[in-house]
Amino acid sequence: MTPQGPGDGRVLVVADDDEDILTLVRFRLEQADYEVLTARDGEEALRLILERLPDLAILDVRMPKLTGLEVTRRLREHGPTSQMPVMLLSASVQQEDLQRGFEMGANDYLRKPFNAQELVTRVEALIGAGQ
Amino acid sequence: MDADEPEVVRLGRRLDRARKARLEAERISEQITGELYEKQQELRAANARLKQETRVAEEAERAARESKERLQAILDNTRAIVYAKDVDYRYILVNKQFEELFGMSEQELVGKTDEDLLPPEAVEQVRANDRRVLETAEIVEQEEVVPRDGVPRTYLSIKVPLLDAAGTPYAVCAISTDITERKRAESYLHAQHAVTRVLAESAKQDDVMPSVLEALGESMGWEVGAFWSLDEDAGVLRCRELWHAPTLDLGEFGRLTLAVAFGRGEGLPGQAWESGQPIRIEAGLRESNLTRAPAAAALELDAAVALPIKSGAKTLGVIEFFSRETKTLGLDLMAMISSLSTQVGQFIERRQAERDADRLKDEFFSLVSHEFRTPLTSIIGFLELLLEEGEVELTDAERREFLAVIKRNSERLMRLVGDLLFVSGVEAGKFSLVEREVELADLARQSVEAATPAATARGIDLKLEIDGAPAVLGDSDRLAQLLDNLVSNAVKYTPEGEHVELRISAQPRQVVAEITNTGAYIPPEEVEHLFERFFRASTATTREVPGVGLGLAIARTIVHAHGGQLTVQSSREAGTTFRAALPPAAVRAAGSAVQGEVGT
Fold it and tell me: Which of A102, A16, A14, A28 is nearest to A58 (CA)?
């Protein structure tokens, strides 16, 4: 089947320690024709990203083993991934946390609970921009 | 004359003459005697008068002598220095104290002036006051600073003019009391008040040290003050605040102080830190072999004192002061500064605790926020999906799954809200327990059953053991919550493949519920904090186990409310065991009624 939607078969890595949220995000993005790979903690996420070099990484900030911020920082320090678009998901409302995310090198930040449409729109924007 | 005058007649005339002469003599004799007698009387009277006058004079003299002796006794027994000077400012009278002060007798002192006795600055002061008394004929009361054995002492002098009949001063009489100690005590009190006020007013201000240094330095008359803070990681003291009197330019000394870091025992601050006691240098700072001695010499700083600021046994920092003049750093001064530095130490600790509390609050809000938003994300997200039925193709299986997710997350939210309300309800003293006979064994079975799916999913072996379980008097819902709490905690924190066991047993006068999980270790330092609200053990945070840290606080509240004890033991080999010991119904009924507990 040839991918038709905006995703066009591009690859995303989504990492979140909450199983249900992972399911939700994957469902939505697969709907938009992205290929979604999932990870449940920061270490798994990093490994997966380095292995598959996706078009976008969507990372929950609060994760076991390595936080989303840590993963972002390492990606930025590593040549092949230093420019990779990164979106952080967070349940935090603090301005400082937002700031830290950008300082680490994230490109965008989505607050939970999020609107599904917004998620997809932002993903498109990030991948489009990266192109 | 007749020759024939008979002899008789001649004799008769001679007799007559003799008789007349004798009468005359007698008369004269009487007269003389009379006069003599009068004279004698007069003499006696004069004698008596003389004696009288002599007695009076002697009386007066004795009285005068007594009076003088009394006066002298007063003059000599007062601790004040009493003296009088004439209009040329020469001493005309001094008391014993004065003699002792100058090491000279009154005879030696009479006639001397202050130029002979005192250094020029002191003379100037004293002379000015004397002059004022003599010129204005008024009483002058002034403080005068006069050196004694090289140390300046402060005297309160009351100077009074002595006036002649015309009302003109002919001498100045003075009583001077040494108030050096009193002034010192006053300055200590002043310093204490100054610092206390600084600390009180700085309740919201982060950094009090500059104000403290200034307050202390100014009240005690020191020229330079420094606060060193202990950098625990590096194990050195670093100067964080430097104060100086406005008249001084710190120069090299200031630069050095700010640049150098002292380890334990190094430099003045390091010595204070190591010994835990104040270090005093009353004089001769510049000659010492301390690092900053040369720079101190350039500023003419001669005396120094360094005090550790402690909270309990822990040293937080050191404050030090420097002065140009020699200081008597007596025990009372040191005691005062020590108590002040303890106050400052406590203040710093309290401020730190406030900061920690603020941080905890922030962390709590962050945690709660996360714990609410996470399930909400799923609830809202999947509801959106279900409501888009038209645009999205969902299989029956998917629909069912999504609904289950929504339900599951809703329940999770409900539990969170329940926990939070429970905790705040306890705060307000608003919860009450139902009292009935409860079979812990039943509740235990239910808890284990509820926790089994989660346990199985993580390969954890969950077991229940009942070893006799007499009834307990209490609230069945709360006790169920207690067991659920402890069991699900155990399952959450146990690594995969390990074991969790819930054991109910009957002990003498106790019903005990023990939850043991292997493979999970809580270090001793954390054990004491485990039951605090919002506390999360390091194992929880590193592995990001979800939760806000209320579970154990709630568990303990419930146990206490039932008249029981909740304890924990943890070791690397055996794992962790939480032990709730409750009084059985029989014992409980005999005791007092159950009360809701406020704020464990």
Answer: A14
Mind spelling out the 3-state secondary structure of B473-514? EECHHHHHHHHHHHHHHHHHHCCCCCEEEEEEEEECCEEEEE
> What pLDDT, on a 0 to 100 scale, did the predictor assign at position A108?
93
Mutate to test the interface with A, among B374, B393, B406, B548 (most CBs of A within 10 A): B374
Count of A–B CB contacts within 8 Å?
Answer: 62
**CA nearest to A22 within chain B:** B378
pLDDT along chain A (131 residues), means of 10: 64 93 93 92 94 94 88 92 93 80 91 89 81 45
Contact A113 B369 (CB under 8 A): no
Q: Can you give the pLDDT at residue B560?
A: 83
Distance of alpha carbon B564 from alpha carbon B512, whole angstroms: 10
State whether B544 and A27 contact (CB < 8 Å): no
Chunked into runs of 10 residues, chain B (600 residues) has average pLDDT values of 72 88 88 88 90 88 85 83 92 90 88 89 91 91 85 89 90 91 82 82 72 85 89 88 87 86 88 87 80 84 87 84 80 79 82 82 79 92 87 85 93 85 66 79 90 86 88 86 88 86 88 87 78 64 59 83 87 88 75 42
Evaluate whether B253 touches B224 at the Cβ level (below 8 Å).
yes
The residue count of chain B comes to 600
Return the pLDDT at A73. 93
CA angle B556, B420, B512 (to 5 degrees): 20
Q: What are the chain A neighbours of B453 within 8 Å (beta carbons)?
A: none
CA-nearest residue to B398 within chain A is A27
In this structure, are residues B85 and B171 in contact, taking their beta carbons and an 8 Å threshold?
yes
Which chain B residue is nearest to residue A91, measuring alpha carbons?
B370
Give the pLDDT score at B589.
61
Query: CA of A109, closest CA in chain B: separation in Å?
Result: 15
- Contact state of A91 with B382 under an 8 Å Cβ cutoff: no
Residues with Cβ within 8 Å of residue A55, at least 6 apart in sequence: A10, A11, A12, A84, A85, A127, A130
Measured CA to CA, the distance from residue B116 to residue A31 in angstroms comes to: 109
Establish whether the linkage from the previous residue to A113 is cis, with ω within 30° of 0: yes
B571: three-class secondary structure by DSSP = strand
As a whole number of angstroms, the distance between CA B239 and CA B257 comes to 7
Helix (H, G, I), strand (E, B) or coil at B146: strand
Residue type, A52: R
- Choose the closest CB to A62 out of B370, B377, B385: B370
B370–A115 C-beta distance less than 8 A: no
Report ipTM for this prediction.
Answer: 0.90
- Taking the C-alpha atoms of residue B476 and residue B165, their distance in angstroms, rounded to an integer, is 105
Q: Provide the shortest C-alpha distance from residue B590 to chain A (in Å).
A: 49
According to DSSP, the residues that pair with B516 across neighbouring strands are B501, B577
